[in-house]
Amino acid sequence: MSKDLIIGIDAGTSVMKSVAFDLSGRQIDVVAHPNGYDIGPGGSVTQPIQRTWEDCAATLRDLGQKIPNLAQRVAAVAVTGQGDGTWLIDHENRPVGDAWLWLDGRAGALAESFRQDDGDHARFEITGTGLNACQMGVQLAYMREHMPEVLDQADCAFHCKDWLYLNLTNARVTDPSEATFTYGDYRTLNRSDEVIGFLGLSDHADLLPQTCDGVQTTHALTPEAAVQTGLLAGTPVSLGYVDIICTVLGGGGYLPKEDTGCTIVGTTGVHVQCKDIADVVLNPERTGYVMTMPIPGKVAQLQTNMAGTLNIDWVLGLARDLCNSLGFFTTDQALLAQVENWMAQSTPGSVVYHPYISEAGERGPFIDHTARASLIGLTTEHGYVDLIRAAIEGLSMASRDCYLAMGALPDTVTLTGGAARSVALRETYAAALGASVRLCSRVEAGAAGAAMIAAVANEHHANMDACASQWVIPLLSPLEPPRVDLVETYEKMFDAYRTTRDALRPTWGSFSSFKGTP
Q1: CB-based contact 122:195 (threshold 8 Å)
Q2: What is the Cα–Cα distance from 141 to 135, expressed in whole angstroms?
Q3: Which of 147, 227, 312, 446 has the greatest CB tally within 10 Å of its CB?
């Protein structure tokens, strides 16, 4: 029987997916299971390690129920998953407690103390990555200080996908992207003793697994994993890169020989540019990530703004709550259907909105947990439709802010996320970025990116450029150029956005100190 399928596994924070693709990149079928997490005191956010593997194996078994002769048809498997966090195992490969997720906030104060240390400038220059509570290095440092008994039990420190790969192949490895942005030098792709030492982890460096590039090296599915997943022992398995890299690959954020960006308009805003290592521009505010790509000489720079569509949810919620309180019951879906009309009724650039609506403040392109949203320029002539436009324009300004922190604005940008289906939103982003925008019709971009790594590793495609030409480019919509008049308006608006933001920054801390006081 022909080996005509590749399975991509994407272990998200709340959903576990196994997706089958044919060798040309066409999605055949998908199985998704909930992958819940637990919230505890002090900012704790954890996930049962063993259950995560069991959920993964279950999705593969269920996929076999949907696709005839799946096991015999699978040419390769690849796995990616949620980034950052800490998944500890002992010397017998058993979990040490629950995994700390990237959402865990217990190490927040420690991360800030590291950032205030003069040595963090050198660490940032090496890794290209801003320090925060999400990262394994800071979480291990917190455990060393507050929970040393946990580290005493641990024999290896994984990320989510590494743990799943261990169960699939019995190999203790991590991928080049998480290895370098956490502890390494993005220029040399080697681990850095200086970075490890700065975090106070020199005595625990033996916890870090070896690096394995899934494009170059595969491991065989073990007989034990074959029984649990329903696949055939010996099937080649690739360790994918971190989920954001795989999402960029599968979702049109990397296109050969094109200066393109990728913006995910989701609950948070994620902005990525793939570039040559020599072209990296580090943000003076020491935020963002530099992540190794599965393409020689290429990295992805990443900036994220904390609140994306949360801002739209907030402004639509005002209308929903008002209508419902008056007995005119409506839903978020009904209000979303009106956004295009409301945008058409409003005037571009009439109100400046800073989209820092999250209670956690902002993290890109600057870090300030006291940052708060604001409206500038309101008059009695403004109405609700202007608030809708202001929220969407504010998100596009935040996107421009993030891209400029990484250097020049890209020529084109692929927009993903449900909100990107809005014509008015795409028009706003295109003008704010001065770039043509497009969509990618790929639904399971993360799993597809992982599967692309396996496709190259197993020589179904000569390299990632050739793979992208078949797996990604046919799924891109035509470019939508920016409106010239809007570009001019938004260039002026961005100056006001930055000027007023900088003026407000000193007030955020003082506001937070008295907020809620009677």
Answers
A1: no
A2: 10
A3: 446
Query: CA angle, corner 405, sides to 83 and 409, nearest 5?
Result: 105
Tell me the pLDDT tens digit for each residue of 72-111.
Answer: 999 999 999 998 999 999 999 999 999 999 888 899 889 9
Calpha distance 495→90 (Å, rounded):
53
Peptide bond into 95 cis (omega under 30): no
- Answer yes or no: are the C-beta atoms of 283 and 47 closer than 8 Å: no
Sign of the Cα pseudo-torsion (31, 251, 272, 265, in order)? negative
- Give the residues of the chain that fall short of pLDDT 70: 1, 512-518
Tell me what pLDDT residue 186 has: 93
State how far the Cα of 207 lies from the Cα of 205, in Å rounded to an integer: 5
Predicted pLDDT of residue 35: 86
> Cα separation of 235 and 64, whole Å?
15
CA distance 287 to 279: 17
Confidence at residue 517, expressed as pLDDT on a 0 to 100 scale: 45
CA–CA dist 58, 37 (Å, integer): 18
pLDDT at 515: 56
Q: Exposed, middle or buried: residue 141 (CB in 10 Å: 0-12, 13-18, 19+)?
A: buried
Give the DSSP per-residue string, 369-381: TT---EEES--TT
Distance CA 95, CA 7 (A): 26
CB of 18 within 8 A of CB of 60? yes
Instruction: Retrieve residue 109's tokens.
Output: 């104060």
pLDDT reported for residue 421:
87
- In the block, residue with structure tokens 């393109």: 260
3-state secondary structure of 298: strand
Burial class of residue 225, CB neighbours in 10 A (0-12, 13-18, 19+)? buried
Distance CA 377, CA 375 (A): 7
> In 269-423, which ranges are E strands?
269-276, 289-292, 298-305, 352-354, 374-376, 412-416
- Could you tell me if 245 and 293 are in contact, meaning their C-beta atoms sit under 8 angstroms apart? yes
Predicted structure pTM score = 0.90
Which is nearest to 304 in space by CA: 292, 318, 288?
Answer: 288
Q: How far apart are CA 355 and CA 332, in angstroms?
A: 20
DSSP bridge pairs for 6? 21, 76
